[in-house]
């Protein structure tokens, strides 16, 4: 997959789905109790789940689709790309870390890392913290 394959689906969610509190049998639906989920292309908008892991246990159905009259016409729905810039800009601290490690990257791949851009307005928070290990010799 490439970056162009990712879309913001919040418009789709708002147009076609609703967060119901009960399943098709009128029982309270709880993600905390569900252990097994099944999604099928044929039953779009229905989530099948089990609260146990036994094979003989029947699936419960949680229908999250909106009623037809509340849904917009499919041709009117336009999904926007999740990210417009390529490659995505990185926080300055992360880019600095990459640049210190570039000497260890295979020469055939260095050009990709050398062309990464930094966010000018990025918060200086470490999104992927790494631990510094000290070894006693």
Descriptive terms for the model:
alpha+beta, 3-stranded antiparallel β-sheet, 2 domains, disordered C terminus, 5 strands, two-stranded antiparallel sheet, 137 residues
Uncertain parts: 121-137
Secondary-structure-based class equals alpha+beta
The geometry reads as elongated
Strand content: 5-15%
Helix % is 10-25%
Write down the overall mean pLDDT.
Answer: 80
Q: How many domains, as an integer? A: 2
Radius of gyration based on Cα positions: 23 Å
Largest sheet: 3 strands, antiparallel
DSSP helix count?
Answer: 3
H and E order: EHEEEEHH
Query: How do the strands of the widest beta sheet line up side by side?
Result: 2-3-4
Compute the number of strand runs: 5
Distance N to C terminus: 44 Å
Quick description:
The chain is of the alpha+beta class and 137 residues long. It is built from three helices and five strands, in the order E-H-E-E-E-E-H-H.
Question: Could you characterize the architecture of this molecule?
Answer:
The protein is of the alpha+beta class. It has helices at 10-16, 92-101, 110-114, and strands spanning 7-8, 36-38, 46-50, 60-63, 80-81. It has 2 domains: 3-81, no CATH class; 87-137, no CATH class.
């Amino acid at each position: 997959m490439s970056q162009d394959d990712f879309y913001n689906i919040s418009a789709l969610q708002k147009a076609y789905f609703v967060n119901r509190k009960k399943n098709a049998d009128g029982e309270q639906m709880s993600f905390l109790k569900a252990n097994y989920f099944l999604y099928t292309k044929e039953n779009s908008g229905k989530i099948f789940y089990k609260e146990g892991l036994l094979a003989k246990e029947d699936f419960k159905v949680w229908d999250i689709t909106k009623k037809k009259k509340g849904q917009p016409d499919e041709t009117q729905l336009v999904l926007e790309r999740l990210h417009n810039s390529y490659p995505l800009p990185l926080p300055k601290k992360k880019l600095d870390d990459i640049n210190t490690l570039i000497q260890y990257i295979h020469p055939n791949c260095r050009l990709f890392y050398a062309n990464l851009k930094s966010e000018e307005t990025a918060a200086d928070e470490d999104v992927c913290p790494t631990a510094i290990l000290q070894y006693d010799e």
